[in-house]
Design goal:
Number of domains of chain A: 1
Structural class of chain B: mainly alpha
Largest sheet of chain B: none
Radius of gyration of chain B: 20 Å
Distance between the termini of chain B: 43 Å
Oligomer: heterodimer
Largest sheet of chain A: none
Strand content of chain A: under 5%
Structural class of chain A: mainly alpha
Helix content of chain A: 55-70%
Shape of chain B: globular
Radius of gyration of chain A: 26 Å
Strand content of chain B: under 5%
Number of strands of chain A: 0
Number of domains of chain B: 1
Shape of chain A: rod-shaped
């Protein structure tokens, strides 16, 4: 992108967004928060699923030895 | 004869689980890089609009989010249809994995639309065709998720959810064409296949880069959620047992 200059002369001008700071930053901040929130939820979902799988393997064995060896198709 | 690719192999949750695990970091990485580039173009390089001043910079998230909200729904309905037709477990799991990300992006498009509408139209919200049909899309996603959560038997939950996904898919062309079919406050498409885009090149580039970033993020998030759903549902299967034992 050579030949394209920055649109802003200062940080304060950038943050001011031509008077629309509330609307512009309100949009970007909420979107960023939602994405970070989803990533955190995905991480905790994965941890829960792993724990569940480990617990099933640990305690599911007992059932199998008792003759209840139902295998998911 | 079919090509050498064994599609059945990839429709097995065990194969998919491993493959998705390898792909997720790449999609997250691509999403992050594209997002930084897109934000730089959109917020730093792109000039102030002569009509809308800097309020227009909201479109760099609004348009990609709105595109993805519709696209994800179509993909979700596609997986649901495939699941109903072939009774493949993985298809239903993919449909379930897409819904929360789709709902989140639909909310983003509504939220950013409101924050753009207030300074530009003078109203946070109007009951016009485009906005109303996008709101219905949001409720369709929520309905799909609520219905699946409410039914204990996963097979019945899958089928009920698939039905909502399929019935609701008629809403997507309504959203897309609403600005043409009805006289709405929402502007027409800025980008279309048939005519030159009605915006400056740099603004367009910023928007497209952000759209690609949203695409990569949605894929990463959906794959990640699909893996957790697979683990939950296949916890009794041989391959999960094997994997857990190998890890310990």
């Amino acid at each position: 992108m050579t030949g394209i200059a920055m649109n802003w002369n200062s940080w304060s001008e950038f943050l001011h967004m031509g008077g629309y700071a509330f609307y512009v930053w309100g949009s970007y901040a909420v979107t960023a928060a939602l994405i970070v929130g989803e990533i955190l939820l995905l991480r905790s979902h994965r941890q829960k699923a792993l724990t569940l799988a480990k617990r099933t393997v640990k305690y599911g064995k007992v059932e199998k030895e008792e003759g209840n060896d139902e295998v998911a198709a | 004869m079919m090509s050498g690719i064994n599609w059945y192999k990839y429709s097995s949750p065990a194969t998919f689980y491993g493959l998705a695990g390898k792909m997720i970091p790449w999609f997250y990485g691509a999403a992050a890089l594209l997002c930084v580039a897109g934000l730089y173009i959109g917020l730093v390089l792109a000039p102030t609009d002569f009509q809308q001043s800097d309020a227009y910079r909201i479109i760099f998230i609004h348009v990609p989010a709105a595109w993805m909200s519709m696209f994800i729904y179509v993909v979700m309905a596609f997986w649901a249809a495939l699941g109903l037709a072939f009774n493949t477990r993985l298809s239903f799991m993919m449909a379930s994995a897409l819904a929360p990300t789709g709902a989140m992006l639909t909310f983003v498009s509504l939220w950013t639309g409101a924050l753009w509408g207030k300074p530009t139209w003078g109203a946070w919200w109007v009951w016009d065709a485009r906005l109303t049909s996008e709101l219905i899309l949001f409720f369709l996603y929520l309905g799909f998720m609520a219905l699946q959560a409410a039914i204990d038997d996963p097979r019945r939950a899958d089928r009920a959810g698939a039905l909502i996904a399929l019935v609701g898919v008629v809403n997507v062309p309504i959203i897309y064409f609403s600005v043409r079919w009805w006289n709405t406050l929402h502007q027409g498409a800025s980008v279309s296949m048939t005519k030159a885009p009605s915006m400056a090149a740099i603004m367009l580039v910023g928007m497209l880069v952000m759209a690609l970033a949203a695409w990569m993020y949605a894929i990463a998030a959906a794959l990640s959620r699909a893996r957790s759903i697979i683990l939950e549902r296949e916890k009794n299967s041989q391959w999960v047992t094997q994997m857990v034992e190998d890890e310990v």
